[in-house]
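Severity: low
Component: inverse-folding endpoint
Summary: output formatting inconsistent between runs
Steps to reproduce: submit the following structure tokens with default settings.
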């Protein structure tokens, strides 16, 4: 008995599957079919001895060998080959789909948080955006992972981060995001060679998607200004990043190991005169600024101070002085 081994090889190649892994799954399918043919196993020798068969497929010729207790079966039961043919037709593509899904899960689960380019293919009535990743795999962008200031137009290419990969049965669902803070990190990495090389490090991010982010950076090379390297000459690098984020404002914050200086930096673009520690255990700090800087330090809707608090994981009180 033989199976169409060239057809199996072609399927494995087209779906980018491991041929030998797929072959092993087909062998298990043949083995199970043979055992089921006898009602979960068959009796040989004494009445209380149950023997289960094993199957092997020659990867070059497609010849199938079924063995009982390691001994090849010379004659297959009448009708078994016909029954197996129906079984294979009904189940091989299911095996291919399951193997493809497992591969997809393993590949994308290892890339969680990474940046991908994807083409928008559609939007349903609930607002779910459907996309095709650059390697032709399908993914979704739920409303919760979208930016409120963006429109998603079928046919357009955009950058996303991989937010979640879920395997449910034989299906793999890839969820992408535009609202995750990680997309700011990845887009900065994409455009800034010094960040890619590690000479400039992103320490932390606080983000309100589509509106504003504060990004803390520091240099691991004393000759490089971390803020200046991200902004770029004439602001070109920062302009590219902002365009990628559909106009979202970016505050670049110089990291400092001195927490008082770090608090002052985090309240940028306001000019802070001084910062004092009010409660070390409670992480409460008070920043003093001129009257004309007070509104800027707090920000519209308290956004500036709110993002600074989230970036530093402290409490900040702002006073005139």
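Observed output (run 2 of 3):
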């Amino acid at each position: 008995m033989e199976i169409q081994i060239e057809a199996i090889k072609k399927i494995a190649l087209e779906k980018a599957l491991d041929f030998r892994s797929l072959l092993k799954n087909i062998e298990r399918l043949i083995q199970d079919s043979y055992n089921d043919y006898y009602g979960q196993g068959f009796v040989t020798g004494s009445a209380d001895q149950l023997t289960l068969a094993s199957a092997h497929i020659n990867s070059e010729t497609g010849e199938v060998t079924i063995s009982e207790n390691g001994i090849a079966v010379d004659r297959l039961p009448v009708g078994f080959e016909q029954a197996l043919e129906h079984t294979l037709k009904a189940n091989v593509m299911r095996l291919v789909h399951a193997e493809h899904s497992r591969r997809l899960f393993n590949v994308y689960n290892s890339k969680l948080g990474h940046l991908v380019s994807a083409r928008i293919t559609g939007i349903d009535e609930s607002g779910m955006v459907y996309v095709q990743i650059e390697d032709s795999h399908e993914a979704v962008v739920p409303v919760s992972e979208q930016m409120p200031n963006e429109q998603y137009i079928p046919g357009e290419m955009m950058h996303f981060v991989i937010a979640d990969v879920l395997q449910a049965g034989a299906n793999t669902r890839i969820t992408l995001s535009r609202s995750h803070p990680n997309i700011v990190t990845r887009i900065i990495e994409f455009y800034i060679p010094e960040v890619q090389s590690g000479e400039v490090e992103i320490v932390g991010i606080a983000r309100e998607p589509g509106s504003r982010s504060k990004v803390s950076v520091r240099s691991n090379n004393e000759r490089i200004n971390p803020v200046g390297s991200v902004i770029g000459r004439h602001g070109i690098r920062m302009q590219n990043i902002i365009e990628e984020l559909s106009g979202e404002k970016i505050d670049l914050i110089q990291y400092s190991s001195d927490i008082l200086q770090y608090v002052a930096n985090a309240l940028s673009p306001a000019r802070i005169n001084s910062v004092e520690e009010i409660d070390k255990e409670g992480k409460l700090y008070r920043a003093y600024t001129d009257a004309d800087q007070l509104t800027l330090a707090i920000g519209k809707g308290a956004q500036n101070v709110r993002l600074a608090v989230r970036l530093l994981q402290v409490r900040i009180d702002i006073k005139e002085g």
